[in-house]
Automatic annotation (TrEMBL):
InterPro entries per record: aa-tRNA-synth_I_CS (IPR001412), aa-tRNA-synth_Ic (IPR002305), Rossmann-like_a/b/a_fold (IPR014729), S4_RNA-bd_sf (IPR036986), SYY-like_C (IPR054608), Tyr-tRNA-ligase (IPR002307), Tyr-tRNA-ligase_bac-type (IPR024088), Tyr-tRNA-ligase_bac_1 (IPR024107)
Name of the protein in question: Tyrosine--tRNA ligase
Job description of the protein: Catalyzes the attachment of tyrosine to tRNA(Tyr) in a two-step reaction: tyrosine is first activated by ATP to form Tyr-AMP and then transferred to the acceptor end of tRNA(Tyr).
Species for this entry: Ligilactobacillus animalis
UniProt-listed Enzyme Commission number(s): 6.1.1.1
Binding-site residues for ATP, renumbered to this chain: 231
Residues annotated for L-tyrosine binding in this entry: 35, 166, 170
Membrane recorded as keyword: no
Keyword entries, A-Z: Aminoacyl-tRNA synthetase, ATP-binding, Cytoplasm, Ligase, Nucleotide-binding, Protein biosynthesis, RNA-binding
PANTHER family referenced in this protein's UniProt entry, alphabetically: TYROSINE--TRNA LIGASE, MITOCHONDRIAL, TYROSYL-TRNA SYNTHETASE
Gene name in the database record: tyrS
Reaction(s) catalysed (UniProt annotation): tRNA(Tyr) + L-tyrosine + ATP = L-tyrosyl-tRNA(Tyr) + AMP + diphosphate + H(+)
Domain Tyrosine--tRNA ligase SYY-like C-terminal, first and last residues per copy: 332-413
HAMAP family: Tyr_tRNA_synth_type1 (MF_02006)
Amino acid sequence: MENILEELKWRGAVNQVSDEAGLEELLAKKSIGVYCGVDPTGDSLHIGHLIPFMMLKRFQMAGHRTHILIGGGTGSIGDPSGKKSERTLQTMEQVHHNEEALTGQMKALFGKDNITIVNNYDWLKEISLLDFLRDYGKLFNVNTMLNKEVVASRLEVGISYTEFTYQILQAIDFHHLLKTKDVQLQIGGADQWGNITAGIDLIHKMEGSDTQAFALTIPLMLKADGTKFGKTAGGAVWLDAEKTTPYEFYQFWLNQDDRDVVKYLKYFTFLDEAQIAELAKKLEEHPELREAQRRLAEEVTEFVHGKEAVVQAEHISKALFSGEVKALTAAEIEQGFKNMPTVEISSEPENIVEWLVDTGIEKSKRQAREDVTNGAIYINGDRVQDLDAVIDPAENFDGKFVIARRGKKRYFLARVTK
């Protein structure tokens, strides 16, 4: 079996490991049970969540028994990790809705081989308050809990007892999965170290100090400029195609900084060392070609949205770059023009000068006439210089849109709504 730890280290994906020698020895002997958890705080994962789950995927591909834990129980409480203030509790209806959405996304990413999806609500809901205090609370030292980074960082502003006990619930999860699924390794982000090691401590107290249980955390992902990875001016980059279209998703990866792209190829793709070295060389010799970024965008978009989404994203990109927008379908226009200036229009045909002013693309008829005459106006990819031309929305894109362009790059989407 391949040395998965060496693979993860080469990819820069290992932050901390508990008892590394012991884990190395265990991995060399057999396929082990590994898990990574996510709380259903929203109805979609974002690319920040992908970081530990890409590592879990590598364990899956290496033949290990991987488990995804959807935190239906812990998600109703709220993990204090990485938060400067108390979370707002969600309703149980919202938590269950989010559980279903995340489970669907995980099934799409992980398929069916060597993967089990579990929900900690199933066992946490069975524990009574007295059982919790007698069976588990007795095994946790408050002084130790206070010293955990996740709690210590919140002591000045305050932390509720609810969030304080979160690490106990996560520890119970690890113990439960060890006993029922033979899971011996938990993976998480750098901020999860305290929670994961709390689980190892609980296992040793309940099952004996020689019981093998391990923690592996992933480094905090920072961009070359020092800012946190995964955020854009528009907010998070979601895996849900309704929240972040596959085209936007593709563009996010395509636009990565030269200084970051090799690191992301190691983290977010399944390309091997030789393939990434070749892309790094091309980046160094011909950075203007952006081959590394293009390959990164292709690989991650295919992993999350499928091959067809890559073809579509590249088609939209090419059409926008060349101005040949007439080749786009109505569905592709929905994706490619999502963040461009949009106006609502009627389906009635209208003279081009009147239409440009009515849509607000031009401020006055004089300016509209001047731009049309000078050849600065394109409608659905075609230059229009005839002042008597008529804009008929029914002629293209299933009668749903008219695409106007002023100059080289200023696109406007006119959406037929009446």
